[in-house]
């Protein structure tokens, strides 16, 4: 795929596994970048499990489509440009039952046919695993790199290493690792609890020679805000650190 003159930088958010927080991290990255005055967009590349519109509270809003292409929907607060298959389906609970090549085609269309306007950053919220869509994105999109998300369980890390190795094999930069659901802080006594054992993200990043971007706690407020479509309201200093670290690679 060709460079898109309307998109300055493109970052894919990946992991080996589902449910580790790719979509939440993707959305939080765009929100924090938008708060810094950057123009950002988010492409929901998880065609069979789209969750971006819900997190941003985009319901019953459809993209404008004309002969020039598809206009992304803008979020209410920060005007983040959003495209998702769910914005194009008749009903949000309608399944998309497509084989790999069709899924890859949808991603190409999201790149070529969507009228992104002047983006500093486009974040791609990827489906789990190392299947057709991640392959298409890594092979054929002008990607600046991938942010990898894991949760602290050994199993999650074992699988996340596959995603990291896939990115490296396809010669794209690994921009860093985010360890999500790393700890929980007691709201009463502030004690920090590690429900999955000691965090391992930092050590694993050193081992694999990739940047460590930071940890995010398990936060019931985050999951509540995601479900309620209020992710633009969510605040956490840890996200700022992660974006600071990520931006080092772009300065
Ligand atoms: N740090 C966190 N604290 C609390 N809940 C979280 C956190 N990260 C993700 N979740 C919740 O876990 C579920 C899966 O997260 P999601 O971002 O959709 O993962 P993925 O995109 O990797 O499948 C969602 O319900 C989300 O709200
Ligand atoms: Mg997801």
From TrEMBL:
InterPro entries: Mrp-like_CS, Mrp/NBP35_ATP-bd, NUBPL-like, P-loop_NTPase, YlxH/NBP35
Keywords: ATP-binding, Hydrolase, Iron, Iron-sulfur, Metal-binding, Nucleotide-binding
The keyword Hydrolase is assigned to this record: yes
List of residues binding ATP: 16-23
Superkingdom of the organism of origin: Bacteria
Annotated PROSITE patterns: MRP
Gene3D superfamilies: P-loop containing nucleotide triphosphate hydrolases
CDD domains: Mrp_NBP35
GO MF term list: 4 iron, 4 sulfur cluster binding; ATP binding; ATP hydrolysis activity; ATP-dependent FeS chaperone activity; metal ion binding
Keyword Oxidoreductase part of the UniProt annotation: no
Free-text function comment from the UniProt entry: Binds and transfers iron-sulfur (Fe-S) clusters to target apoproteins. Can hydrolyze ATP.
Quaternary assembly: Homodimer.
Record-stated family: Belongs to the Mrp/NBP35 ATP-binding proteins family.
Protein name: Iron-sulfur cluster carrier protein
Organism: Atribacter laminatus
